[in-house]
Design brief:
The protein is mostly beta strands. The protein is built from 4 helices and 21 strands. 10% of the residues lie in helices and 43% in strands.
């Protein structure tokens, strides 16, 4: 049994599975003990990526997606349609399974807030969501989490022009606790800026944390970024490529470093607009506006 197989079993079934695979566990014990002690993870990793060909076709309800993500433990996928200005949800069953078409669940028209969205982010439980424009973040709610027909504006926004100036923002992402916000842009000076929220999930309380990382010299078409569950790794999405970064301090972009791993997405359309991870960081999902699909890629 390979080291990766042992690690996956331990991650899936917990420490008790050591007794089920004791011979292989003892073989790799020094490495595994280090992983459990430090909270490090082998995933995500771009060293062995497999295109599963599983996907959801979004164009039946919307086109020109400009950002999307999973919420409610992978049971819904929501994306912004930049043409009809709608937030569109699909129910996913089982969780993170994009081999099925998903179930359309209505829409919310975002032009009541802005007609120029460039990105979107969500609170994992689906109760809050956020629309990004080139200089402003608008805060929204869903009174029934994940149900876009109950969506409304919170009347709260955050101006981020002080950091971006004329360099338009292209993506944003929250840490899982909602106390840290990350916003980035593209171009040769592409940079991610980190903000602290004194009241989690309330963007009106966001302040620049004086932390940033410039990735433009490595990847200059950045459209989205997603962190691993422990905040120690990040996948940066270009128009049709994925780049791996590590963080020596979880969710602290000032400690980011390029991990010298990249993966080029071929045959799925360029114009990438979103990247997501499953709950175990062993699969990433690529949203492209060219074919308006969400594609699954596994990592081993």
């Amino acid at each position: 049994m390979s080291f990766l197989s042992v690690y996956k079993k331990l991650k899936k079934y917990g420490a008790q599975s050591r007794f089920l695979i004791s011979r292989d566990y003892l073989r790799y014990k020094p490495i595994l003990d280090s992983i459990f002690a430090t909270g490090e993870s082998l995933f995500p990793s771009l060293s062995a990526v497999t295109d599963t060909n599983n996907n959801i076709y979004l164009q039946s309800q919307g086109s020109n997606a400009t950002g999307g993500d999973f919420i409610i433990s992978g049971t819904k996928y929501l994306f912004l349609d930049s043409v009809s200005h709608r937030l569109i949800p699909y129910a996913i069953s089982p969780a993170y399974n994009v081999s099925n078409s998903g179930t359309y669940e209505g829409a919310f028209y975002t032009q009541t807030v802005t007609t120029a969205p460039v990105g979107v982010a969500f609170k994992p439980d689906g109760s809050k969501w956020y629309i990004l424009t080139v200089t402003v973040i608008y805060q929204m709610s869903m009174s029934t989490p994940g149900n876009v027909t109950t969506a409304s504006s919170d009347g709260i926004s955050k101006d981020i022009s002080a950091q971006f100036g004329a360099n338009a923002a292209t993506w944003m992402r929250f840490a899982p606790d909602g106390a840290t916000l990350f916003v980035g842009n593209a171009g040769v000076g592409g940079t991610v800026y980190q903000y602290t929220l004194s009241s989690p999930w309330d963007v009106s309380t966001a302040s620049y944390a004086s932390k940033s990382f410039t990735y433009g010299g490595i990847q200059n078409t950045a459209r989205d970024l997603v962190f691993s569950a422990n905040g120690k790794k990040a996948l940066l999405l270009g128009t049709a490529s994925v780049w791996l970064f590590t963080l020596s301090t979880a969710y602290d972009v000032s400690t980011m470093a390029y991990a010298s791993q990249t993966y080029t997405i071929s045959g799925k359309g360029t114009n990438g607009q979103g990247i997501s991870l499953n709950a175990t960081d062993t699969a990433f999902f690529y949203l492209t506006a060219q074919s308006d699909r969400v594609y699954e890629f596994t990592m081993a």
